[in-house]
């Protein structure tokens, strides 16, 4: 029987579940798929915006947009066009109902659990294809899927479903590969850039004052040598802080500049 079994809404950047359907079966196959759901949730930021994972008798499909991913579990013979049309409806309703500020600042899992009411109603409609023929137009979705088919995630790249993930590589439209051994840099914030510039300026100022102190020491004996040491120590500290910013914007480098450092997000 081809049906949608469950669906969930997940934040892309950290895999935080925002909402989910609550009436899924508890058989062994479903429990295994829930593990894959969690594993995929942690990898969403590295994956294309439309994907499918085949897990034996079930398929996991998801789409991502505006920092939120919409995932669903269905039987293996459930039509692709219906699956992604279902996800598209969830996406449109969620974007209409909740603004990005709320989703970005959410800290509790399932803080939008009331969205499950819409998930349930939509799931019932899509599990009864007769009622869909007069309510939705699948031709546009079919054309889109034909032109840009969902990325098929190989099971071997996902690793075992026991919580121990293997290297997870994605090669999509020539975008290159990202594995769990690599890391992704997020852009520095405005405050971080300002702090970086101020560190450079402080280092330069301490250096200039140090040279002036040396000149003063050579001209007279009244200058305390400890001031010179203090200026050059201050310069060294500022330059060390700046030097923590990697010279190359590599995925393996970690920006550890204390006030600035673009946050490093592990795969």
TrEMBL record:
Keywords: Acetylation, Coiled coil, Endoplasmic reticulum, ER-Golgi transport, Membrane, Phosphoprotein, Protein transport, Transmembrane, Transmembrane helix, Transport. GO terms for cellular component: endoplasmic reticulum membrane. The keyword Membrane applies. Residues 8-119 form the Longin domain. GO terms for biological process: endoplasmic reticulum to Golgi vesicle-mediated transport; protein transport. It is found in: Endoplasmic reticulum membrane. It is a multi-pass membrane protein. May be involved in vesicle transport between the ER and the Golgi complex. Belongs to the synaptobrevin family. This is Vesicle-trafficking protein SEC22a.
């Amino acid at each position: 029987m081809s049906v949608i079994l469950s669906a969930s809404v997940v934040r892309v950047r950290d895999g935080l579940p925002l909402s989910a359907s609550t009436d899924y079966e508890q058989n062994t196959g479903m429990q295994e798929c829930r593990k894959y759901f969690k594993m995929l949730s942690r990898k969403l930021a590295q994956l294309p915006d439309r994907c499918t994972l085949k897990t034996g008798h079930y398929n996991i499909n998801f789409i991502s947009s505006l920092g939120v991913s919409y995932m669903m579990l269905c039987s293996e013979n459930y039509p692709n066009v219906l699956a992604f049309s279902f996800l598209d409806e969830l996406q449109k309703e969620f974007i209409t109902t909740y603004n990005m500020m709320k989703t970005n600042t959410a800290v509790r899992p399932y803080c939008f659990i009331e969205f499950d009411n819409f998930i349930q109603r939509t799931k019932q409609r899509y599990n009864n294809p007769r009622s869909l023929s007069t309510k939705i137009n699948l031709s546009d979705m079919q054309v889109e899927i034909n032109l840009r088919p969902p990325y098929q995630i190989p099971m071997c790249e996902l690793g075992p479903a026991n919580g121990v993930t293997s290297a997870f590589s994605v090669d999509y439209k020539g975008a290159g590969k990202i594995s769990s051994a690599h890391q992704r840099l997020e852009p520095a914030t405005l405050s971080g850039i300002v702090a970086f510039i101020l560190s450079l300026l402080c280092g330069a100022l301490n250096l200039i004052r140090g040279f002036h102190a040396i000149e003063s020491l050579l001209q007279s004996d009244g200058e305390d040598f400890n001031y010179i040491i203090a200026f050059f120590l201050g310069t060294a500290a500022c330059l060390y802080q700046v030097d923590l910013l990697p010279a190359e914007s590599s995925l393996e480098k970690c920006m550890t500049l204390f006030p600035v450092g673009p946050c490093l997000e592990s795969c």
